[in-house]
């Protein structure tokens, strides 16, 4: 499952959605299927609970996350940080630290995660580091090379979605992300973490 954290509601084009779709196509080549959800299209309330009350769209999205073996978190860079939507997703995922299975493990244990970052400024490493730590804190495992990104030149207005073709470096990194994350998800499925 991919949660796209662009600030632009559908049907507007979004570079983070485009790169997320490319990641999901690589997973399909490996035999995995999944859904992409643009979070801003849903009323995800602020908070750190699994359900913030009437009208909160997070419980339905949470069920999809918990039903998936892999979570892809895709975000643009805004002011050197993940988008506010992405931060909200991490805050909502924080509630998983209070939820556990019958053996005392968080429900996110045994799930792999990967990150997609786009922007037209430097900062992809910083943003991915923030997301890696947050995802790991709430129980997800990350494979080597669990990020793909594209950033344009500083002070430049080109968006990833406006490129005539995907740069080979980005395509290769995307393939590596999918292969390594898929491999990790298979390992975790076959060999769960020990009971807490």
Automatic annotation (TrEMBL):
Which GO molecular-function terms appear in the entry?
oxidoreductase activity
Task: Fetch the Gene3D superfamilies from UniProt.
Answer: 3.40.50.360
Signal peptide (UniProt feature, chain positions): none
Pfam families the UniProt entry points to? FMN_red (PF03358)
Record domain NADPH-dependent FMN reductase-like: where: 4-145
SUPFAM superfamilies referenced in this protein's UniProt entry, alphabetically: Flavoproteins
Protein name per Swiss-Prot or TrEMBL: Putative Divalent metal cation transporter MntH
Organism of origin is Streptomyces aurantiacus JA 4570
